[in-house]
Automatic annotation (TrEMBL):
Residues 1-30 form the signal peptide. Pfam families: GCE_fung (PF22244). It comes from Dyadobacter psychrophilus. This is 4-O-methyl-glucuronoyl methylesterase-like domain-containing protein. Gene3D superfamilies: alpha/beta hydrolase. Keywords: Hydrolase, Serine esterase, Signal. One of its GO terms (molecular function) is carboxylic ester hydrolase activity. Residues 243-390 form the 4-O-methyl-glucuronoyl methylesterase-like domain.
Amino acid sequence: MQKFKRSPIRAFAGKWMTCCLLSVSYLATAQQQAANRPTMVAGFPVNYSEDSVGTYTLPDPLKTNDGQKVTSAEVWMKKRRPEIVRLFEESQFGKMPGRPADMHFNVFDKGTPAFNGKATRKQVTVYFTKDTADHKMNLVIYVPAAAGKPVPLLMNISFIAYNQLIDDPGLMVGNVWNKEGQRVKADKPTAFGKMNIEQFIDAGFGFATVYYGDIEPDFKDGIKHGIRSLYLKPGQTETAPVEWGAIAAWGWGLSRAMDYFETDRSIDSKRVALQGASRLGKTVLWAGAHDPRYKVIIASISGEGGAALSRRHYGETIQHISDPSRYLYQFAPKYHDYAANVSSLPVDGHMLVSLIAPRPLLLQTGSTDYWSDPKGEFLSAVAAAPVYKLFKEKGPETTVMPAAGDTSLLLNELGYFMHDGGHSVLPGDWTHIITYMKKYL
């Protein structure tokens, strides 16, 4: 067991704007940063003082349920890792179903030149059921036009439709869920701005993305409309205590994207990286833990319920998540039983991080993202490093948190990078992410 002193680092910026995966920083000045540190959320106080985090003991990822010490990669893979996966299924995310029998694909854009001929674009609808009227997601995929063989690829999960994300007039206009819980045409610009896709093409990578709302809406009653509705028993309106929440549903959809990649000869499906930010940072961690086909995981600003340590009473906590006005639906119902007694939670962020081993994992965060606790993410990587060491892979070898902009831990198999700024993915972060992909893909 490892004992740590708790501490504070997580800034709240509102449900929709905190989710940004693009180059938008909402904490531009010290005054703004202070304003985005609420002292009370959902009726619960928020701590930002390292002196007030107390002490805590982390569960040992290298000790099996029956007390055996894990000393080899073989024991980890065959015994301990499956135990931890089950613990997360039972206590935090819920259990995902498998691939649906009637799933099928429609490549309706079979290869169109894009970005002045630099890339080739495909658009694909993944149908989760035989009935094509509903329960489907749309993927857009770009690969370098000059590639003479299957290419490695970055798969991104987005908060907006891909025609809103990418400056490409040939894209289908998708549908998105609005704040009123209605499906509307995605024909308007968003605050997220456009993403530079050509940087991936120039580096020799493909790029793909999906709108998370295609899989499951991001609101309390989303279960009535999303993929989880197909798995409810007759008369059931909510998930049972250990069934899946919305995060698991989004992760399930990412596995269905991989199912498609395995059929596409332009993509090297054994070299696909997966990236998401905020609640989608949590999503890619759980998707990557559950689906080892993803070679590299890049979890941006994933915070509480992601890479940050829940036992650190700093910034957002399970209590804040579990209030009925907030994010109950994103997790398995059982998770909220630990809101008032986090020390009884059988898992924590370092164990989620450890499930990616020995595959490369980059934790990307921001120095003023106090609500999401960048220090908690760093300490999580420190606590997960012994699992990577079983495979002779490198994680943090220091307990001293690097400064903003310090790249000394960036290229570890278990990497960590913190930009100077808040809850966002900045243009410079993509440069570092591409460098990381170049090394490991």
